Amino acid sequence: MITTSRRARLAWNIATYAVLITLTVFCIFPLLWTFLTSLKYEADIVTQTIQYIPTRITFDNYVAIWTQSGFPTLVFNSFVVTATTVGLCLITGTLAAYSFSRFHYRGRSALMLGYLVIRMFPAVLMIIPLFILMRGVGLLDSRLGLALAYTSFLLPLFVWMLKGFFDAAPKELESAARIDGCTRLGAMVRIVLPLARNGLVATSVFVAIAAWNEFLFALMLTTSQGSRTWPVGLQLMVGEFQLPWGVLAAGGIISIIPVMILFAIVQRTMVHGITAGAVKG
Fold it and tell me: 215: which DSSP letter?
């Protein structure tokens, strides 16, 4: 006979799996729906009755967006802007996070609080000052200017996340390296960064995804095809009297492929970094 405790455990497991399955379907369904829409003819998308499974499959939407809309240029711009943003955050954010983690100096708490305050304000409040600043220094409508704008609101997130990983790195190993002749910078590069490698990868992935999907700054700070990113390009495809659902769905699927590849490459390292940052000691 099944005891009461085993029945309760079984009921709890069933409820847990039911919730997990429901959440999984809720998260995957929009992606699946977008993919199926990208394989439909336009006449099969806008219908009186919803067709979940396409009766006719076509790849014309992918061909159209890749050959007729300048989408490859938009994707390339997103690659350049994202890589530049991650590079700027790695160079400046790593040094800042190490400084906050290892040094105690006047104004340290105020600076850390300032980073948090920047994250508290909506990003839309920064657009007008950044627009004026970029126009003044000649970086408006450029990929470098857009990367600097992304860095302005992603760097605080990078610094705060990476500081937690640096705090978890044993200071004794760093001290031993300095006794053996390493400089402070050498100890950071040879000891601290390898120990926080997983956290560095996880933080960089978060920054890369945020930069890759950002829309508002790219819309306001770019005006030409040579610097626009893919979210702006998709939005501009929507006209007053037309809404190409199939082409938009194909563009969305193409745009998430780099993110999926990135996750596939760094998945294990990223998970280790996130779990390491959640455990202290």
Answer: -
For the chain, list residues with pLDDT below 70: 1-3, 239-241, 269-281
Whole-angstrom CA distances from 66 to 32, 143, 214 are: 21, 21, 21
User: Do 169 and 192 meet the contact criterion of CB atoms below 8 Å apart?
Assistant: yes
- Distance of alpha carbon 136 from alpha carbon 126, whole angstroms: 15
Q: Which residues contact 220 (CB under 8 A, 6 or more apart)?
A: 127, 131
Q: How does pLDDT run across 166-220, given as a tens digit for each residue?
A: 888 888 888 888 888 888 888 888 888 888 888 888 889 889 999 999 998 999 8
Structure tokens at 8: 């309760």
How far is residue 43's CA from residue 11's CA, in Å, rounded to a whole number?
Answer: 47
User: Rounded CA gap, 119 and 140, in Å?
Assistant: 23
Would you say 65 and 257 are in contact if contact means Cβ atoms under 8 Å apart? no
Return the C-alpha torsion angle 79, 80, 83, 84, nearest 10.
Answer: -160
CB of 67 closer than 8 Å to CB of 83:
no
Cβ(160)–Cβ(120) below 8 Å: no
Closest CA to 225 of 66, 61, 63, 77: 77
Residues with Cβ within 8 Å of residue 101, at least 6 apart in sequence: 163, 166, 167
C-alpha 191/C-alpha 233 separation (Å) is 43
Alpha-carbon distance of 235 to 11, in angstroms, equals: 47
